[in-house]
């Protein structure tokens, strides 16, 4: 394993899209790449649970599928406790915990397709904000080279 891992926070909405079965089919495999460390927090898991329990998603995936995915995320990601703090310039204050997680977890990348994050000009402290497409490209480049580099 490398001593220079790229630390990543993924927006939970990416997992919801994964469950729905959109174009993120291989995304779960990213969790096993030794060049990356994916971090979560209790608020992260809570958001996924709340969203996946909504009845409107039953036509797309079962509760059992959602529970299985949550279990995988909990087992393959590092869970850290964060200290809530306000985030300036964030339209959706409910997403503050993701910025707190990225900052307090020393994340190199926050992956999100949410326009609210794009408004933050691509970077928060040392954390670079990437869309999923940008992260896919970055991930593939790192995987080809076999080592981790900071974005």
In CATH, the topology is named Rossmann fold
Query: Quick one: CATH class?
Result: Alpha Beta
Tally of DSSP β-strands: 6
How would you write the strand order of the largest sheet?
3-2-1-4-6-5
The named CATH superfamily? 5'-nuclease
Mean pLDDT: 85
Known CATH architecture: 3-Layer(aba) Sandwich
Give me the strand/helix succession.
Answer: EHEHHEHEHEEH
User: How would you sum up the major sheet?
Assistant: 6 strands, mixed
Structural class: alpha/beta
Provide structural commentary.
The model has no long low-confidence stretch (mean pLDDT 85). The longest helix has 14 residues, at 63-76. The protein contains 6 helices and 6 strands; from the N terminus they run βαβααβαβαββα. The chain has a single domain, classed as 5'-nuclease (Rossmann fold), CATH 3.40.50. It has helices spanning 12-20, 42-52, 63-76, 96-104, 115-118, 132-145; strands spanning 6-10, 36-40, 78-79, 109-111, 123-124, 127-130.
Please summarize what this structure is.
By secondary structure, this protein is α/β, with parallel strands linked by helices.
Which key phrases capture this entry?
151 residues, Rossmann fold, 6 strands, globular
Secondary structure: elements and pairs:
Layout lengths: L5 E5 L1 H9 L15 E5 L1 H11 L10 H14 L1 E2 L16 H9 L4 E3 L3 H4 L4 E2 L2 E4 L1 H14 L6
Parallel strand pairs: 1-2, 1-4, 2-3, 4-6
Antiparallel strand pairs: 5-6
């Amino acid at each position: 394993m490398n001593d220079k891992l790229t630390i990543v926070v993924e927006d939970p909405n990416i997992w919801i899209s994964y469950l729905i079965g959109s174009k993120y089919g291989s995304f779960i495999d990213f969790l096993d790449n030794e060049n990356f460390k994916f971090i979560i927090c209790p608020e992260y898991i809570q958001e996924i649970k709340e969203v996946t329990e909504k009845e409107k998603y039953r036509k797309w995936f079962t509760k059992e599928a959602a529970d299985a995915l949550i279990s995988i995320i909990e087992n393959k990601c590092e869970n850290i406790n964060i200290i809530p703090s306000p985030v300036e310039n964030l339209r959706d204050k409910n997403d503050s915990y993701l910025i707190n997680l990225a900052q307090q977890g020393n994340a190199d990348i926050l992956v999100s397709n949410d326009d609210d994050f794009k408004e933050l000009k691509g970077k928060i402290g040392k954390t670079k904000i990437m869309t999923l497409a940008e992260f896919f490209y970055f991930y593939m480049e790192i995987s080809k080279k076999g080592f981790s580099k900071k974005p």
